[in-house]
Design a protein that fits this description.
This protein has helices spanning about 55-70, 105-125, 180, 190-205, 235-240, 255-260, 385-450, 450-455, 460-474, and strands at about 10-20, 25-30, 40-45, 75-85, 85-90, 95-100, 130, 140-145, 150, 160, 275, 280-285, 290-295, 305-310, 330, 335, 340-345, 355-365, 370-380. The protein is α+β, with helices and mostly antiparallel strands. The chain has four domains: about 5-90, Phosphorylase Kinase, domain 1, CATH 3.30.200; about 95-260, Transferase(Phosphotransferase) domain 1 (Transferase(Phosphotransferase), domain 1), CATH 1.10.510.10; about 275-380, Immunoglobulins (Immunoglobulin-like, Sandwich); about 385-460. The strands form five sheets. The chain has a five-stranded antiparallel beta sheet, covered by helices on one side. A five-stranded mixed beta sheet has the order 12-19-18-14-16, with no helix packed on it. Helix 2 packs antiparallel against helix 4 (about 190-205), helix 2 packs antiparallel against helix 6 and helix 4 crosses helix 5 (about 235-240). The longest helix is centred in the C-terminal third of the chain and has 64 residues, at about 385-450. The chain is elongated, with a radius of gyration of 43 Å. The structure holds adenosine-5'-diphosphate (ADP) and magnesium ion. Adenosine-5'-diphosphate binds next to strand 1, strand 2, strand 3 and strand 5.
Length: about 475
C-alpha cells in the first residue's frame, strides 16, 4: 500500500493508523515538517469507490465537532486542507494505545478507564447543544502509559440528540449501539453510556469488539456475568445498568454514572461466612414440613455478597432445575446482602419412613470462583409397629373394596351399554307410532259407533273438538 505524498502541504506521512472502507476514510500518522510535531491526518478520499456524500458530510461533521471542542482527553484540532484526491483533517497525535490492543485488564484498571472516559463524556454533555459521540468502542478510546484516557473518532458525533436523524442509515458499530440508536430514535445523554458500558464489558470478559454481539439476546440484554471471575456485585450491577436496553433504566448521564461508580471498591471481594457447615434433620416424623435457618454473612466492608442455592441432581429425585427441587427448598433462593437469613425447608411427604437421605447442596456466590459445598442429611423416623400392621391389614381391605367396586361399576356399565339402546329404540318407536295409532283407534271407535276406545283412553274430548272445528270451518 502506497502512502500519499503530502509534503507539498508540509506533512510527511509515516504510517497508516486505520482505514475505514465504508466511510472512505484513512488515518495516518504524520510529521509536521516545520515543527517536527507528530500529527494524525485523517483523509476523506473522494475517489474511493465506497465513499459517498453521506460519508463526506460525516467527515465535515467531524471537523466541525473537533474545532469546537477543547479537552485534555480529546485530540486537538490543528488544520484542514484539500488535496487532489481528498479532504484532510489534521489533529494532535496522542502517544497512546487503543483499548483494543492486547493488555491485561484488572477491575481497578477498568474502573480507571471508566471514570476518565466518563469525565470526557461529562464535558461533551455540558456543551450546548450536547455532543453525542455515537461510536464509543475499544478502538476509539486510547489509554496512555500514565493511565490517561482519550476519546477519538468524532466521525459519527452529533450535536444534540432530540431530532431523529434525517438519514435512515444507522451510524455506529454493531454491538456498541444502544437500541435507540439502532432504530434511529431520539438519542439522550444516556446513549453514549451504553457504548462505554459495552466497551468496559469487552475489557472485563476479554471478548473482542466483533464478538460482543453474541452476548446480546433478542430483548437487547447483554449477558456477561457468567464469563467473569468473582467480582464485587455493586460493580457488576453498575456495568449492567450502563448497558440497560431501555435508556430510562440506565444512568441518566455521565455525571450520574461517575457518582455511582466512584464509591465502589472493585478490588476487594466479599467473604462468605455460614452459620452451619452442613444441614441436618434427624428423627423426622413422616409427613411433616421441616425448616432450619442458616445465617449467611460477609465481614468485608464496602463489598456485597450475592449468591444462589442449588441442589445437585440425585438419581432418586425427580428431575429438577437448579431453581426448583421437589422436596428441598431455600428461601430466599437467590440473595444479595451481607446479613442474610436463609430458611431451608424439607418436605418429608415425598420421603419414606426409616430412611436416610443425603443430598449435595451448592451455594454459588461472588466471593470465590468455586461454589461452597454443603451436605444436607435427612433421617426419617420408623413407623410404629401397630401402624405398620394395621396399614398392612387396611391395605388388604382397601384392595378388596376396590376390586368389588371395580367389578360392580364394570357390570353396571356393560349392562347399561346393552339396555340403553333397547330402551332408547323403544322410546323412539313409541313416539313415532303413538300419534298415528291413537288417531287410527279413534277412527275405528267412530266407525264402529262406540265411544269405547275414546272413553277408555279418556279422549272423547278430542273427537268432539275435532268435530267442532269442522263445524266452524264449514
Ligand atoms: N489523535 C490520535 N492520536 C493517536 N492515534 C489516533 C488518533 N486518532 C486516531 N488514532 C488511531 O487511529 C485509528 C483510526 O482512527 P479513527 O479516527 O478511529 O478513524 P476511523 O474513522 O477510520 O475509525 C484509531 O482507532 C486510533 O487507534
Ligand atoms: Mg474509529
Amino acid at each position: 500500500m502506497t502512502l500519499p505524498d503530502l509534503t507539498s502541504h508540509g506533512y510527511q506521512i509515516e504510517r497508516e493508523l486505520g482505514c475505514n472502507h465504508l466511510g472512505g476514510r484513512v488515518t495516518y500518522l504524520a510529521q509536521n515538517q516545520t515543527t517536527q510535531q507528530a500529527v494524525v491526518i485523517k483523509q476523506f478520499q473522494f475517489a474511493r469507490l465506497d465513499s459517498n456524500w453521506d460519508a463526506y458530510r460525516e467527515f465535515e461533521q467531524e471537523i466541525h465537532t473537533l474545532q469546537r471542542l477543547s479537552h485534555a482527553g480529546i485530540p486537538r484540532y490543528l488544520d484542514t486542507f484539500e488535496t487532489s484526491d481528498g479532504l484532510c483533517l489534521v489533529q494532535e497525535f496522542i502517544q497512546a494505545q487503543s483499548l483494543s490492543s492486547d493488555s491485561t485488564w484488572t477491575p481497578q484498571k477498568i474502573k480507571n478507564v471508566a471514570l476518565r472516559a466518563l469525565a470526557i463524556l461529562v464535558y461533551l454533555q455540558k456543551q450546548s447543544p450536547v455532543v453525542i459521540h455515537r461510536d464509543i468502542k475499544p478502538e476509539n478510546i486510547l489509554l496512555d502509559a500514565q493511565g490517561k484516557v482519550y476519546l477519538v473518532d468524532f466521525g459519527f458525533a452529533r450535536m444534540g440528540g432530540g431530532e431523529v436523524a434525517a438519514s435512515s442509515v444507522v451510524k455506529g458499530t454493531m454491538g456498541f449501539m444502544p437500541p435507540e440508536q439502532l432504530f434511529n430514535r431520539e438519542l439522550t445523554t444516556a446513549s453514549d453510556l451504553y457504548g462505554l458500558g459495552v466497551t468496559l464489558i469487552c475489557l472485563l470478559t476479554g471478548i473482542k469488539s466483533g464478538e460482543i454481539g453474541n452476548l446480546i439476546d433478542a430483548d437487547y440484554r447483554l449477558h456477561f456475568r457468567h464469563l467473569v471471575p468473582p467480582q464485587e456485585i455493586g460493580w457488576l450491577n453498575w456495568l449492567e445498568k450502563m448497558v440497560e436496553a431501555n435508556p430510562k433504566d440506565r444512568y441518566r448521564n455521565a455525571k450520574e454514572a461517575i457518582l455511582a461508580l466512584k464509591p465502589l471498591n472493585v478490588t476487594r471481594l466479599p467473604k462468605l461466612r455460614l452459620s452451619h457447615a452442613g444441614i441436618e434433620f434427624s428423627d423426622c416424623k413422616y409427613g411433616k414440613i421441616l425448616t432450619q435457618n442458616l445465617m449467611i454473612s460477609n465481614p468485608i466492608p464496602e463489598t456485597m455478597l450475592a449468591g444462589r442455592w442449588e441442589v445437585v441432581p440425585h438419581i432418586s429425585d425427580s428431575p429438577h432445575t437448579p431453581y426448583r427441587h421437589s422436596w428441598i427448598h431455600f428461601q430466599p433462593h437467590k440473595f444479595e446482602g451481607n446479613e442474610v437469613e436463609c430458611e431451608v425447608r424439607v418436605d418429608t411427604r415425598f420421603l419414606s419412613a426409616d430412611r436416610t437421605y443425603i443430598r449435595k447442596i451448592l451455594l454459588h456466590h461472588n466471593a470465590a470462583r468455586e461454589p461452597q459445598e454443603l451436605t444436607l442429611q435427612v433421617t426419617t423416623q420408623k413407623l410404629p409397629d401397630f401402624l405398620i400392621r394395621s396399614s398392612q391389614g387396611s391395605r388388604l381391605l382397601k384392595y378388596t373394596i376396590a376390586s368389588f367396586l371395580h367389578f360392580t361399576i364394570f357390570l353396571i356399565l356393560s349392562l347399561g351399554l346393552i339396555i340403553a339402546p333397547i330402551l332408547f329404540g323403544c322410546a323412539i318407536f313409541f313416539w313415532i307410532l303413538a300419534g298415528p295409532l291413537l288417531i287410527g283407534a279413534l277412527r275405528i271407535d267412530d266407525f264402529i259407533g262406540t265411544k269405547w276406545i275414546g272413553s277408555v283412553l279418556n279422549l272423547n274430548w278430542l273427537k268432539y273438538s275435532r268435530k267442532k272445528s269442522y263445524r266452524i270451518e264449514s
